[in-house]
Design goal:
By secondary structure, the protein is mainly α. Helices cover about 65% and strands about 0% of the residues. It contains 20 helices and no strands. The longest helix is centred in the first third of the chain and has 29 residues, at about 55-80. The N and C termini lie far apart (about 80 Å).
């Protein structure tokens, strides 16, 4: 025991001596101290100081949720809702649009919508951003910003690539919604031209007007997550496209029963939950308003589904499954322009009106006049256009100034800066916001309708807008050369092959 103690004591003295030498070396050569005491710590950090891991993670997660709404969400929703012979074509239109918009968005569309404004002429100012790529190292890894809005919001705490991708999934889903109006007859080659042109000349411009700090934003119009920029635009453009392209075959118009409602409900469920990213990601921060937006989104959606279901039961005596999906969509769309500007009571009100009014326009007004003549396959004008319009206007009524999007640190003093929020008529804020919302809606409707008509007419000089008669009669098999869901007679090729091989 004594020998062991002596050895241990001597070892301690040796370590103390080594420590004394180390400390002496540190004071003599301070530049070595870091490496002597922190030999396993390199001179690296994971990110610049402006990066916030929570905001970055939420922005990328929200973007992925929105992307899932398109693929596979809308692809399988459409694939289930349409007649069997159009299931594959509907999904292919979605996958093509998603892909081409990403290329367009990265090369010039993003900066048209969120970049530095192009020089104006006289009263025409802040109409569009300067086109240009967002693909350089500095653009992808530098701090994200929206030039015209930077002074009215906190600095963003994630890289430019996160913002580019987040905004891309919104740009991508919009033409997919338009597709719902022209399913069952549009020439695929015409669709291939239409999507990138429309995304460039219509979507990016409208996005800049409201989201990029353009002229509508400057007068006070707001759109929390795309009720106007996406859904009103898609509803109007889809209706115009349906009118210009022309109707489906008479046989398809008379009989277009869904081929797989269970698959359609799966797509609808992806849409509903994906919308948490759609609306929850738009404050650009993982903050209280993002949480409020997510809750309000689900409240309005549930209310709208129930309202539409009850109206159907009174009208036809049965709970219509397809109509339930329509009700769900109108709630999601209606709350989109308002999600973070209203409280839960406002979300309930929007859910009621965003379902009841489109139900009436689809089932009553849709059966008379021009509404009946234009073959809007899935009723996009009603479920997206009208619902988005209702939600946007109701911001001017039920916007609650206590729903703070961004908090100010200078609410008092000589030059106070208020918190960022939106107040409507019912909260004592007057008619101003309602007027701004009405002007924004009118501007989007007129611009999108005219531009969509012109784009389609120009495309018609290059390729036919409508599929040929044989293609419309054959559907997937005629257009893509394959039937995704063949119906075999007994015995099937698989069982026959097994029998011959045994």
């Amino acid at each position: 025991m004594h020998n062991v103690a002596a050895v241990t004591f001597d070892a301690c003295l040796m370590h103390l001596g080594a420590l004394r030498l180390t400390v002496t070396s540190l004071f003599s050569h301070p530049e070595r101290g870091v490496f002597l005491f922190f030999a396993d710590a390199g001179p690296f950090v994971e990110a610049p100081k402006w990066v916030n891991a929570g905001d970055t993670a939420w922005q990328l997660t929200a973007a992925t949720l929105v992307g899932l709404m398109s693929l596979p969400g809308l692809a399988i929703l459409y694939g289930g809702l349409v007649k069997k012979k159009w299931a594959l074509n509907s999904a292919v239109m979605c996958f093509y649009a998603f892909s081409i918009v990403l290329i367009v968005w990265s090369l010039w569309g993003y900066n048209m919508a969120f970049g530095t404004p192009a020089p104006g002429m006289g009263p025409i100012q802040n109409w569009v951003g300067i086109p240009g790529p967002a693909l350089s190292a500095s653009a992808e890894l530098g701090q994200a910003t929206i030039p015209l809005l930077a002074s009215g919001m906190p600095p963003m705490h994630f890289a430019g690539a996160a913002l580019v991708y987040f905004q891309f999934v919104f740009a991508a889903i919009t033409p997919l919604l338009i597709a719902g109006s022209v399913l069952g007859r549009m020439n695929f080659k015409a669709w291939m031209i239409f999507v990138p042109v429309w995304s460039t000349l219509v979507y990016s411009v409208g996005a800049f007007w409201i989201w990029g700090g353009g002229w509508l934003a400057s007068i006070g119009a707001v759109d929390y997550s795309g009720g106007y920029v996406i859904h009103l635009a898609a509803g109007v453009s889809g209706f115009v496209a349906a009118a210009v392209v022309g109707p489906r075959l008479l046989a398809d118009r008379e009989s277009f029963e869904p081929n797989n409602l269970i698959m359609a409900f799966a797509g609808a469920g992806i849409l509903w939950l994906g919308w948490n990213g759609f609306n929850g990601g738009d404050p650009f921060y993982a903050n209280p308003d993002a949480a409020g937006a997510v809750l309000n989104t689900n409240i309005a959606t549930a209310m709208a589904l129930l309202v539409w279901l009850v109206l159907d039961m009174f009208a036809i005596g049965k709970p219509n499954a397809v109509s339930m999906i329509n009700g769900m969509i109108t709630g999601l769309v209606g709350i989109t322009p308002a999600a973070g500007y209203v409280d839960g009571y406002g979300a309930i009100a929007i859910g009621i009106f965003a379902a009841a009014i489109p139900w009436f326009t689809l089932n009553r007004l849709g059966q008379i006049g021009i509404m009946k003549k234009v073959d809007d396959t899935l009723g996009v004008l009603h479920t997206h256009g009208v619902a988005g319009l209702i939600g946007g206007l109701m911001v001017g009524l039920v916007g609650n100034p206590a729903m703070i999007e961004y908090y100010s640190t200078a609410t008092t003093g000589k030059n106070p800066t208020p918190d960022v929020s939106v107040g409507g008529l019912f909260y004592g804020q007057g008619f101003a916001q309602l007027q701004h919302q009405a002007l924004a809606a009118f501007s989007i409707i007129v611009f999108d309708a005219i531009m969509t008509f012109v784009i389609l007419k120009l495309i018609s000089f290059v390729v036919p807008l409508r599929a040929s008669e044989p293609e419309m009669e054959g559907g997937d098999l005629a257009i893509h050369g394959v039937d995704p869901m063949p119906i075999f007679s007994s015995p099937t090729p698989l069982s026959a092959a097994g029998a011959t091989g045994s």
